[in-house]
Amino acid sequence: MKRGLIFLRVAFASAVAAAAVFLALAVRRGVDTDLMSLAGLGRDHALREASDAVSGTVALIFEGESAEDVAKAATAAVGEFGGMIDGDPQEVLKAIGEHGAGLLSDGARALLEAGSYDEAMKGSLSRLFGPVPPVVSVKRDPFLLCSEYVESMFAAQTRGWTRSGGFVRKSHEGREYAMLPIDAGKVAQSRLLELKREGELSASRADGVRMFCAGPAFHTAVATANSKKEINVLSAVSAVAVLLIGFALFRSFRFAPVLVVAQLSAFAVASAALFAVFGRPHVVTFIFGTSLIGLSVDYVYHALAGAASEGSRGVLKPLTLSMLTTVGGFLPLVFAAVPAIRQMAVFSITGVLSVYGFVVLFVVFGFARSRVAVAAPSCAAGCANGVPAAARGVCLKALLLAVAALPAVVPARRLFTEDPSAFYNPDPYLKEGDALFVRASGAMGGRMAVTHGANLQEALENEERAGVKGVSAVVPSLKRQRENAALKAKLHEAKGAEYSAATGIAVRKFDAADLPADAFLDPEKIPCLSWMAKGWNGRCTVTPVPEGFESGDPAVKVYSVRDALATLLAGMTYEVMKLLGLSVIAMAALFAALFRRRALSYALPVVFGFLWSFAALVATRTPITLFSFIAMFAVSGLGVDYAIFYRSSEGGGKCGAATRRTVFFSFLTSLIGLGALAFTQFPVTRSMGIAFAGGLLGAYLAARLPFRTGGTPVPRA
Amino acid sequence: MGKTVVGITQLTLAALLCAGAAKLPPVELPDEAKGKFVQKKTLRDVDVTLTSTGEYEFAKDRFFTFHTLKPVESTFTATPTNYTITAGGKTTTTPISVDVSSLEKIFEIKEVKELVKGIHVKGTNFPYTVSVEYRNGDGLEIEFSK
């Protein structure tokens, strides 16, 4: 027995050490901070692509009264981040000339397709005799079709803005704007935060030019910084609360080292499991998990208090039952489609298992129990306060039912939401920047066309077929270029001689069929033109499309990112509710099998935990989202714990009083640890904190309801 | 003492610079002008010089319109936010910032750096000639008259 215990202890310690080493290595991968991935956009690949495309770019927008001052501020930003044209413009124009045999503007193509050669030639002559110089050698491009293509390409790229000194600018409703799009991947998160601060301070600039930051990367940077701050604050608050409450329970700090080791080992094991299973877990999981690890306090308190007063066997049974019901409560979440929910489930289950392993091996059957004991019960929690039990029961029932009825009185239906804005409360300054971007750029309402292709050329062909003005509006597909070359050849044949006579420029015979492959523009093969294919990510192109644009093409999916996200979240909420229902049914069956007639006394804390969670959300007008339901999973697990330990205490005597007292202090610790989430900025964790606070209070009070059939020992686990 | 020497030197330099500036011909073009032009466009690649004539209209910082009448009609209009070409009944707008603060500045194309090698102005009043030298060897010479 002793050897077996030593072996298990060594095995446990080795596993924790291995987890810690793995965690130290894996943490270098970083955590996922993308807000969209929180909702698991990986399920919908096209939506994921659209989201990534939106996330890939940020913009600095300068606004002011004086065009000159606005341009000056934008020019300074161009100095730091570079302008919009990549590469040497001369080199770019030279490359377009050398590989431009198949380049035609939409207008020129329409004319040549219609066979309007007279009109096409007249247009070329007008250009030739006008003041604008040809940007491509006239020898190669006598009809100036490439020059016209370059002009149309500029228009396709800037979409209503004017290119100016490396940025774009426009006047809108009497205000001057300059915008500099920047590749988000090239700017460190710390610099994004600095830019935000500079932007906020720009309100007091002497020249009246304000700088705004727009784009999801800014939101991600701010959310990450806030999350880190909140993790630190929550951890500190939890630690202080744990120490104070623990001292009140044990009248000494001897419990602290045990608790610290239990929590550290649980955090190492749970985090290592997250990195091992998910590669890059989401930062929100850690916010939730930091508080959830606080649940381990329950196990340590009960193990220390129970082992000292009731002996190893006495405390092992309720501990094991508690662990099983908590793990059982979280287990359905492992099968959720939403990655963040799966991550929270894996984190909670492995954390709870680790704490259970530690307290059983090192506390219940260990040395710590002899040194720590629960202080003599006071009337704070475990006693009847001189009030008759029947009267207490009636008051408690009335209170439980009154609060539980709150959602029925207040119209809670309106609080149920899948609106993405309920999941994220943007920083006011960034929100202003985004709104300005939409207003000034006349953005297309967030509709995106995602065009897939096995390669760039296929995607370009698909865009052209579906009429999507994406990458193909800047660089046509090679197939389209060959068609264009054939159209050009017809123009040369029909009007070459006449054109030569009018201009003195020799027009060479243009044989489209004989053109070599390098006569055409393939941005994947010409380094200085690679920026042309910027919208191609290796799988698809993502293009903003106007309202009303639809495509029946199977390669093209048109999305309103916001609507698609809301639909996705609605589906996920339904899924989580289904899992919660399944969990409740499984738990009810387990209670019936284990506790028979007493099953109701174990089920009531879970039921009231749910009802009070709803009541708390309704009372605080907090939107009820799928994450509120996730909090209820934790509430159900803890509610069962309270019931198990409370029922186990009903044997009476000093031991019973000590257990009830321990339950009360555990509840208090969890309430503070998890309820602290209600004070976070992130709506997801805030909503969870409120649900936790209400739910835990309801569950604890329901666990205290007196039952006539009390006093029987806890059944076998 | 040292400060005084530096101050005198600075004043002398400033005076010399001012004197230099004073020697340049003063530009006496009005903020608004219209008249006729003769344009000679030289295309080095094909060794051809194309001559065209027409009418222009200029309003400082607002627009510049170049209406070519012969040999082929077309209209080029530059504004601070774009330039448009109407040729063969078709209008193309290019969203590039154009400096329309003076007749010669219009030909600077800042967005495509080094496309223009140099701009030379002849005359202090009308007739007023602007010569543009492009990096690829092409050239443009326009004589504006009232």
Care to describe what's here?
The complex is a heterodimer of chains A (717) and B (146). In chain A, strands 2-3-4-1-5 form a five-stranded antiparallel β-sheet, with helices on both faces. A three-stranded antiparallel β-sheet of chain A has the order 7-6-8. Chain A folds into two domains: 2-30 and 219-423 and 563-703, no CATH class; 59-215 and 476-535, no CATH class. Chain A is built from 25 helices and eight strands. Chain A is 61% helix and 7% strand. Chain A is an alpha+beta fold. Chain B is an alpha+beta fold and 146 residues long. Chain B has a single domain, classed as Lipoprotein localisation LolA/LolB/LppX (outer membrane lipoprotein receptor (LolB), chain A, Clam), CATH 2.50.20.10. In chain B, 15% of the residues lie in helices and 47% in strands. Chain B has a nine-stranded antiparallel β-sheet with strand order 6-5-4-3-2-1-9-8-7, with no helix packed on it. In chain B, a hairpin with a 2-residue loop joins strand 5 and strand 6. The radius of gyration of chain B is 19 Å and the shape is globular. Chains A and B meet through helix 5, helix 7, helix 8, strand 2 and strand 3 of A and strand 1, strand 2, strand 5 and strand 6 of B.
Short description:
The complex is a heterodimer of chains A (717) and B (146). Chain A is 61% helix and 7% strand. Chain A is built from 25 helices and eight strands.
Keywords, please?
heterodimer; A: 717 residues; alpha+beta; 2 domains; five-stranded antiparallel sheet; three-stranded antiparallel sheet; disordered C terminus; B: 146 residues; outer membrane lipoprotein receptor (LolB), chain A; nine-stranded antiparallel sheet; globular; disordered N terminus
Largest sheet of chain B: 9 strands, antiparallel
Give the proportion of residues in helices of chain B: 10-25%
Q: Largest inter-chain interface?
A: A-B, 49 and 44 residues
Strand element count of chain B:
9
Structural class of chain A: alpha+beta
